[in-house]
Fold:
Amino acid sequence: MAEFKSGFVTLIGRTNVGKSTLINLLVGEKVAAIANKVQTTRTAIKGIVNRENCQIIFTDTPGIHKPKTKLNQTMIETSFSSIADTDIVLFLIEATSKDIGKGDRIILEKLKENRKKVILIINKIDLVKRESLLNLIQIYSSEYDFEAVIPISAINEKYKNIILDEIEKNLKPGPAYYDIEEYTDQTLRQLAEETIREKALKLLQDEVPHGIYIEVEKMTQRKNKKGEDIYDVEATIYCLKNSHKGIIIGKNGEMLKKIGRLARIDMEENFGIKINLKTWVKVKEDWQEMDNVVNKFKLK
Structure:
């Protein structure tokens, strides 16, 4: 029988390259919030893949971007510090790049410093012609000795096993760090916060950018009148301005109801239990500079 392998794999890349979409594809569950926005992922989220002779623990990190606040700086530090403790790095770039941009150059230099095994994943190949893809592969391969270069579309299921096989090939023998039934080390509370934030980001478009964070104040389990298990979840959406609060609540509370409804449906699907979700909106003007809030997003 083949020897059991295990290890830690970090996804790194600029904002919006598709890291969260990819980790959800690889894990097969909704672990990371997906929204086509800068800074969707604020913390290092772990997802676990159990295969026949292998356990892979993925960390999806915040996208690399130019920091403007204490929160932004913390997010970038989280991304880079996670490289040091990983076995393999999945470096995700966009196929539409013509050259190595500033953000990708910073990541490359960090990878060179850490000398880790790196698999280059080129996402969104459906958007480019073969010639420009081959040219991009050549540019990156001249910069770093990658274990493999895998061109993909992160929304296509067929690339899942190609990537997982390559990762397994590069892992060393080791134990299963988590129970094989688990797919994330996040608490249900964290997953609930992520789910609500994802729905808010998707529905609010660019009107209320990333000046929101979610805090689940209460999460208790009980039985309803039919004897079914149900979670009572109470969450507050914090925003930076009064004008943002009005947008989040919407006319006659419609926007907040919509955010809550979509988040509840997702949570029920992911947690396998009925959810009674109540949400509030509060203004906290300078939360992005507050240590007690920003520290929540540091790598634990």
Remarks:
- Residues 188-297 form a domain with the GMP Synthetase; Chain A, domain 3 fold (CATH 3.30.300.20).
